[in-house]
Amino acid sequence: MARIELILLDFDGTLADTRRANALAYKQALAEAGYRLDEEEYARR
After folding, report:
1. CA dihedral 18, 21, 24, 28 (to 10 degrees)
2. Which of 3, 18, 21, 23 could pair with 42 as two cysteines, CB 3.0-4.6 Å apart?
3. Is-contact 16 10, C-beta < 8 A?
4. Dist. CA 37–CA 25, nearest whole Å
């Protein structure tokens, strides 16, 4: 059985560009609270 020796997490976009995924997650979470956010607004702020 293989043993896990390393777990690598990327939270700032160094390995993968997660900006769009983050924008969509914020958009969905805010929509559930009654707020509207589009990707352009997210990018500006």
Report:
1. -120
2. 23
3. yes
4. 10
